Amino acid sequence: MFTGIVQSVGTVVEVHKLSDNSVQLEVNCNDLNSNSKIGESIAIAGICLTVEKVNQDSLTFTAISETLNKTKISEIVKGSSVNIEQSAKLQDLVGGHQVSGHIDTTGKVVKIAKSDNWSVLRVAIDEKFANLVVSKGSISIDGVSLTISNIMNKDGENWVEVSLIPITMAHTTLGSLVEGNLVNIEFDLVAKYVAQNTKK
Q1: CB-based contacts of 154, cutoff 8 Å, min separation 6
Q2: Where are the beta strands (DSSP E) in 64-156?
Q3: What's this model's pTM, rounded to 2 decimal places?
Q4: Which of 26, 149, 179, 188 can bridge 138 by disulfide, Cβ–Cβ 3.0-4.6 Å?
Q5: 79/145 same-domain check
Q6: Known SUPFAM superfamilies for this protein (predicted)?
Q7: How many CB atoms lie within 10 A of CB 197?
Q8: Helix, strand counts (H, E) of the chain
Q9: Based on the structure, what is the number of domains in the chain?
């Protein structure tokens, strides 16, 4: 379990495509390189991955086909910047919201409106997820816990907007997004459970 509070921005050192439709990533996770153990869960761009190897300057992870199909990981290349968060401990404060690291889908950045003190990020999502978003509800974008400020679900438009404060822009990869970029989306766990129960 994670909180959506990014601890650092790491750099992808190597990407290895394996023969069984999986991808191995080597990521420089900064201070976490020496503070992580094999078998530990770390969120990379919001994706819960397991540490397979602790290297001198990086950690090694493998993403299988299910992860490749649901996330933007296939677009990650050597040199890509990624948000990093170590799994939460029981004594940790939950500064964001409960994030599982199990990505639901990807969204496309369709608009970025910048001002002096904040930016508004608009992300298009598939209409089938419309029942999982609510104004002032929580959402995780590339592993960052955010509050939904506006939604649209009519006339063929389906998107969510979130407001980004300067510290989020400066200390996560969201500050470098441009229109057309894909982002990993994880909807709020409570919203997913409610939606599932209402189907019965």
Answers
A1: none
A2: 81-86, 105-114, 119-124, 138-141, 144-154
A3: 0.93
A4: 188
A5: no
A6: Riboflavin synthase domain-like
A7: 8
A8: 4, 13
A9: 2
The domain of 29 spans: 8-86
Residues 119 and 79 in one domain: no
Residues 80 and 161 in one domain: no
Indicate if the pLDDT at residue 173 is higher than 90: yes
Q: Which pLDDT tens digit goes with each residue over 128-137?
A: 999 999 999 9
77/114 same-domain check: no
List Cα–Cα distances, 116 to 162, 166, 167, 171, in angstroms. Answer: 16, 9, 13, 17
pLDDT at 154: 85
Out of 86, 116, 137, pick the residue that ends a domain. 86
Q: Which amino acid is at 54?
A: V
Nearest by Cα to 187 from 26, 32, 21, 46: 46
pLDDT of residue 167 exceeding 90: yes
pLDDT value at 91 more than 90: no
Nearest of 156, 141, 146, 151 to residue 72 by alpha carbon: 141
In terms of domains, do 113 and 183 share one? yes
The domain spanning residue 124 has which CATH number? 2.40.30.20
pLDDT number for residue 92? 63
Measured between alpha carbons, how far is 174 from 147 in angstroms, rounded to an integer? 14
In the prediction, which pLDDT does 145 show? 96
pLDDT given at position 9: 97
